[in-house]
Amino acid sequence: MEEVLDSNFEVLYPQIENAVNNANFITIDAEFSGMYSEKRLIHSLFDTLNDRYKTLKKNIQQFTIVQFGIATFRHVPFENAYKTECFNFYLFPRSIPLKNRKISWQVTSLNFLCKHNFDFNKFLNDGICYLNEPDEKLLTDYLTQGDLANILKHLLFEEEMELNEYRNQISEWMARSEQTTLKLPVTNPTLQYILHKDLRNNYNNIWTVSDTKSMSFLKITPDKQEYMSKQENNLEEILLNSFMRFSKIFKLLSSSKKFIVGHNVLLDLMFMHQQFYKPLPDSYTEFKNNIHTLFPEIYDTKFLSFELRKLCKAEVNWKQNSLSILYEYFTTTGAFLSFNSPKIVLNEESFSNQKSYHSAGWDAYFAGCIFVKMAHVFCVKKFGSGLEERIVTHSELMSCVKKFVNSINIARSNEMYMKFDGEDPVLSRPEWLLVKLKSPSIDIKELIKKFSSFGTVDVMPFSHRCFLVAATNHNSAINILQSFKNNSEIQVTRYSRLRYAKHITIGLWSGAVLSGLFIWLLKKYF
């Protein structure tokens, strides 16, 4: 695992670029500063995909990705293996001229990150900056003006104080010191830019150089300064690049057009859109189109696991399909199911720390591992058990999961997945149930209690003493219908959307959704 920070980004970038360009596929994962902005924005089995997108958009707009993981997988044909390189990026959104950027945190997310050994010192002191397209244009236009006085005008008070202190030290060095060099801990890219421009433009015997952690000032001859000025890169471009380091990675991933794999990947994609591309659009369709343009092929291992469980009912016994449970399954008790599947060979040179869940780099690696294992099982089911005795090709693996491309899992909604490259599925959950309370002794709390034994359900007020019930699967809906068929207190029938269209329109706008067995918050690790 390579830990990528602001201080080593330039050194590691060629390795990252080479790994991405030579990969057969790339897996991603992200850790967030928060996910839920309001308690009332709860997911429901009544949600349409458009409803769900708008709810998630409201939830995540104030939060950010704080850690991003990438794992590249390259197939080695004659070794029955994939070689992988993993990279873990700490991301920190530094303020730019004209815009003082903010980070919002959710306390539960802070606790979660602390529990899983997130290094806040690296995040704050050595995190990698990024810009989305609007901020990139804002900064580019600003720097194109080349007006140093205008840049000074937009400094924060603390930055002004820091700049004045550096200038005082530089002035004293120039006037009194016999030393030919001075080194100062200037880490702010904007202050570095100002000092570069100021000293180079106003003094013909001073030269400046910098890295991410400091600036050095050198006394030189005018002839040497003239020569060095011709060799130096554009200072505006250097400043812009310092703010766009992870944006460079995002653009590399998109331009490579390699297919992307993630586990329960919808939130990752939404955060990536708003953080590295553009603010999330109001239109769900526009969001889908944008993501499909950026990443034409995406596989969601959460969705694949549901499809695999339907195909292998006898062999598969996991009760949950979180990333950790799936990885443990395929590396222990379920290893027989993917017998002779390609080995995953981790680049030993980048193996610097112990594998751990909920570190974005390692989670990206785990997602890639279970993707290969599940693809192999699909292959065996399609081509027969003979594949267990020979090396499977990369093309064979991909052909067996191709029908699942761009199908993105949706937790607890009216549909079970989004389709990023076409029409979304027509209703895949059970039809809603219409419940009428015939006994005055039965209220909504009692109703929820009675239905909770049939699994996860959501209940929504419909009309006077009438409720709609959404069940998570067809078996639950059938069991409820049969169990209350002759009940004297509760009448349960299948709901006709056509017949009650007017009522449901009113209900959806005015009724609150109540949870059945429990509220399933959409957790990243589920």
Automatic annotation (TrEMBL):
Biological process terms from the Gene Ontology for this record are: nuclear-transcribed mRNA poly(A) tail shortening; priRNA 3'-end processing; siRNA 3'-end processing
Q: Which Pfam families match?
A: CAF1
One CC-aspect GO term: nucleus
InterPro entries, sorted: CAF1_poly(A)_ribonucleases, RNase_CAF1, RNaseH-like_sf, RNaseH_sf
UniProt-listed SUPFAM superfamilies: Ribonuclease H-like
Q: Does the keyword Transmembrane helix apply?
A: yes
Which molecular-function annotations from GO does this UniProt entry contain?
3'-5'-RNA exonuclease activity; RNA binding
Keyword field = Membrane, Transmembrane, Transmembrane helix
**Parts of the chain that traverse the membrane:** 500-522
Signal peptide location: none
Q: Which Gene3D superfamilies match?
A: Ribonuclease H-like superfamily/Ribonuclease H
Carries keyword Transmembrane?
yes
Q: Which family does it belong to?
A: Belongs to the CAF1 family.
**Protein name, entry field:** Uncharacterized protein
Record organism: Tetragonisca angustula
